[in-house]
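Tutorial handout. Part one gives the primary structure; part two gives the three-dimensional structure as tokens.
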Amino acid sequence: MAAIISYFYGTNSAGIQIKYYIVENKSGARVVLSQLGASVVSIIVPDKNGKMRDVVLGYKGIGGYETDGAYFGATVGRCCGRIRNGKFKLNGQEFNLPINNGPNHLHGGVKSFSRRVWDSRVEDDDVIFTLNVPDGDEGYPGNMTVMVRFSFDNENILTINYSAISDKDTLCNITSHSYFNLDGHTGGSINEHTLKINANSYIPVDEFLIPTGEIRNVTGTPFDFRKGKKISEGLKENHKQLEIAKGFDHSFIIDKEERTLGLLATAESEESGIKLECYSTQPILHLYTANYVHVLNGKKNASYEEYSGFCFETQGYPDAVNHPEFPSNILKANERYNQTTKFVFTVK
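Part two.
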């Protein structure tokens, strides 16, 4: 069984005390979680020499989690990713969402799930965060209740289960936005990490990083990670999509049965020997290589620059509500949204 310790870390700008949870397994590996944004603050696991390393980027204090745009470790929703022009139609009605990323709506808006203080509790070996958001919140329809359950077991597996229900048809596409660096959060560039992604195709984007509606085969492109390769091998290739995004900020369509828990991707560091496997019930792995990160107020006074971490964002299809050719992210009234993602840490 995991040992769970909770404590108040500090207060946010509204004077609300923010509770942190440390979930530690029998080997001493541990995960630190925060009520603010239902965020993953730290994941501390052993390297090939038995040394513990914190393998996710994070902020020095609560202020970063409350205001910064990198979304370190946050639970992101109602709808992760970008929505073109912050507009969509649902059941014949047009909805307008806050514009917070160029001309688009990003990661649920100005005060998205990642900016909220969630209710929290411990249940057996799990930490559970719940949030109630009203009809019209950030422009979305429906009163919605969301629950995120975190567990961390003795095999160094972090399991995240997302569930939600709404009293109106709405959009729902929730993800975890942790930035991984398997050399440690102060490990510098992740360019020499080796990635393997189980995807034959990816979704190209336009100049505003909105899906064009195409689905392209990865063969002969920097997006072919099927056999495994270093991130640097992909980044050094001359490709228009990499120029647009300044790196990888793209959705990969995973080759697995629909709604089954399958292996989406793996990442490895030769330096630390740490290997990460990502499993999910979701059909999409969005890979982001921290192309625009410039954070000076990192954990333990660390600073982070571009390519200092990578995100494995498990999710539904991006901007699907504006692309009828994509599988829908519409959550029907009184139906249950339920998705699971697992991050498995081992040593080579």
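Part three, for discussion. The mean pLDDT is 97. The radius of gyration is 19 Å.
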